[in-house]
Every structure is written in C-alpha cells, then in structure tokens.
Prior knowledge:
Blueprint: H1 2-6, H2 8-12, H3 20-45, H4 50-66, H5 74-85, H6 92-103, H7 108-127, H8 138-219, H9 225-250, H10 272-281, E1 285-290, H11 299-319, E2 324-332, E3 335-343, H12 357-367, E4 371-377, E5 380-388
Parallel strand pairs: 1-2
Antiparallel strand pairs: 2-3, 3-5, 4-5
Helix pairs in contact: 3-4, 3-6, 4-5, 4-6, 5-6, 5-7, 6-8, 7-8, 8-9, 8-11, 11-12
Amino acid sequence: xxxxSGTAGGMASFQPPISRWGHTWRLLICLFVSLIAVSTTYPxxxxxxxxxxxxxxxxxxxAFVLVLYRRRWPFPIVLVLVALAAVSAAAAGPALLATxxxxxxxxxxxxxxxxxxxxxxxxxxxxxxxxxxxASEWWLTLLTxxxxxxxxxxxxxxxxxxxxxxxxxxxxxERAEAERDLRVRKARADERAAIAREMHDVLAHRISQISxxxxxxxxxxxxxxxxxxxxxxxxxxxxxxxxxxxRSVLGVLRDPDTGLVANRPQPTYAxxxxxxxxxxxxxxxxxxxxxxADRAVPTALGRTLYRIVQEGITNATKHAPGARVQVELRGxxxxxxxxxxxxxxxxxxxxxxxxxxxxGLRERVELAGGSLExxxxxxxxxxxxxxxxxxx
Length: 392
C-alpha cells in the first residue's frame, strides 16, 4: 500500500477537493488549538517583555499562511510548521492540521519522521518556557506528547484510508456504468444488424416472387383480360404480403417501454411446406426431399432451416430464373444437413442483389453452432449447411 500511496500522481486521486466551508472549519479548529496553547503559555512569557509575545504571534500568522499550502507540498510544509511550533505556541494549531494532513497520504517513512519531530518539537517548546518542569518529569511529557502525536497520525491515516476506499468505489461505479453503456450500445448494434438480416430474409423472397410474376406477364402475349387481371391481382397480393412482413419486422423498433423484441415474424419448420408451395405457385420449380417429416424438429432449429431454404430459393430465383431447385433435408438427433442445388443461370438475374444474403446466412448458421458451404460444382450451384439438432 505504501508504494501505491506514496506516488504523487496516485495519491492525488484520493484527495477530494475541499469546499470553502471545509477550509473555514479546519482553520477554526487550528485557531481554537492555538488559543488554548497561547492561553497556557503567554502568562509565563509576560516577564520576557512584549517583543516575545509579538514574535510568537508573528510566527503564528506565518504558520496559518503556510498551512494553506499543505496539500501542494504536504511533507515540506509539515516539517516547517512542526519546527515553528517548537518556538511559537500560536503555530500549534497549523502544525496539528499539517500533521493530520500528511498522515492521510499513508507514506510510512514520512509518518515516522513526523512522529519523531513532532514529539521533539513539543519537548523543545516545553523546555523553552521560563518555568520549566523538573527534569525527573520529562518522561511524563514525552509520553503525553507521543500519545497525542500518535493519535493525530492514526486519525490522519484513517481519513486517508477512507478517502481511498471512497475513491475506489467511485472508480468501480464509473467503470460499471461505462461497461453497462457499452453493453447497451452493443446490444442496440446487434439488434439493428438482426433487423437488417430479418428484412433481407423476409423481403428478398417476396420481391423475387413479384419479379417472377411480372416477368411471366411480360412474356405472355396470349392472355385475355381476365387472365391478365388475375395475374396482376397475384402480383398485388405478393406486394401486400411484402408490406405486411416489412411492418412486422419494423415493429421491433416501436417498443420504447420494455426494449424487448416484439412482433417479429418467426417461421418454423412447420411453415416450410407453405414456403415451397408459395414459391411453386410463383413459378419456381422445386423438388423437396424432406426426410425430417416424421421427426419433432426443435423450434430454434426449425427457424434456421426455414431461413436456409428460403434464402436458397431466393438466390436461385434471382440468379438462375427458371432453373429447377433441389432441396434435401436429412438428419438425426446428432445433426441435420440441408442441401440446395440448382443449375447455374445463363441469363441476367431478374432481381439485382447486394450479394449479402449468403453472408448473412453463414453468420446465422455459425451462431447456431453449425457450418455453411456454398459454391459451384460441375455446373451446379450448391448450398450445404450442417446444424446441430439442439441449438444452444
């Protein structure tokens, strides 16, 4: 502790600023102590003449000025004031305050030096009085002075220890608040990223279906008015579904009271068949080989499977329109494999993409404890995901 407290920079942190009232009551205590010392000493100095009392008062005034700088130079100031208190009763109060102040720093060697000098100063001041005590009673003065000095130093060390404790608690509280704010900012950033991924997953699939419908209507020249109207109604319904999904996703931003995620669409494995049928109705050609139909798929795993198949169909629709997509799900209690295959597209993609779908999908799969691979194999684009049966 001495090493930590002995450094000027470290110890300065434990010294709180003193208010104007704090300075005032400390000086009043110094004045009270000095008045007691003066009242017991000056009657014995009257015989030496007015100059002796005037000198004592002058030294006392200088001591009161010096004690104001005890925080800037604690050890030098206390040495000077203890020396002045040896020859001036009026300097007793400032010397007492400086002694307590230097003890708050809890530097062992400084406290030891001050203890010896303060005791010696008291003995010297007593010996300088005209009516000195008998030599046989010097030990009584030594014990009394030593006890008072040790009490003052102990009180100062207690004050310093308490200041350090309060400073440490304050630092811990500030660090805790900073860490809390950092966690809040990270949680908000993670939530914004999750919302962005959710918007991509939900809307990209709907928009690709709308693109397929409008593309089919543009090429069909044999449609009568009723068939054209029916096709337009289908596009309108898909657009309404996209808007409904968008409102549902953005609903998570409208909960200022609790801050909890709400109203987010959470499709599961049970919705996978509806997803495939809706994609087929939109014109996609999909072969589904689902070997998990007779198993109770956990909810968390089902959500991830749904997103993988949805993103795979969306990718195929955008980059290989009209290609047949093969979807295969297989697994057991140890894990699940999802494989999507489609021939590479020859023409321009119907819907331009930001090429972030598979990036977000990889992140989703890795957070679930699985792995994702994708790439071209013999003229076929393959997406292969492996997931644990239970997602922690």
